[in-house]
């Protein structure tokens, strides 16, 4: 089961996340979402647990608890929604792509 963890303190590491959920069962992965530009954590992440019962117990136990002064938001992750691509993409520059 894939679990969303939000409102995390920015100081929290993937190991901290793995250890927090590991007390409730086997964690197959723990991943923080990082800002592409700064390389810093965005304050949310995902944990994968293979056993649905253990995952549900972890969600119920951890949701609303405080870590680093912040109240965690924990629930089953929803599938990622496709977003429309932005014009211009990652080509850089400022404008319409015309060459002189």
From TrEMBL:
Gene3D superfamilies: 3.30.70.330. Residues 1-79 form the RRM domain. InterPro entries: Nucleotide-bd_a/b_plait_sf, RBD_domain_sf, RRM2_NsCP33-like, RRM_dom, SLIRP/GR-RBP-like. Keywords: RNA-binding. Residues 77-89 have a biased composition (Basic and acidic residues). Residues 90-100 have a biased composition (Gly residues). This is RNA-binding protein. It comes from the Bacteria. Residues 75-100 are annotated as: Disordered. GO terms for molecular function: RNA binding. The keyword RNA-binding applies. PANTHER family: HETEROGENEOUS NUCLEAR RIBONUCLEOPROTEIN 87F-RELATED (PTHR48027).
């Amino acid at each position: 089961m894939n679990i969303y963890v939000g409102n995390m303190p920015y100081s929290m590491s993937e190991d901290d996340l793995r250890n927090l959920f590991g007390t409730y069962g086997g964690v197959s992965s723990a991943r923080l979402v990082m800002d592409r530009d700064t390389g810093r954590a965005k304050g949310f992440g995902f944990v994968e647990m293979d056993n649905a019962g253990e995952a549900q117990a972890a969600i119920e136990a951890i949701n609303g608890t405080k870590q680093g002064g912040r109240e965690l938001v924990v629930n089953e992750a929803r599938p990622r929604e496709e977003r429309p691509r932005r014009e211009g993409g990652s080509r850089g520059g400022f404008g319409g792509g015309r060459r002189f």
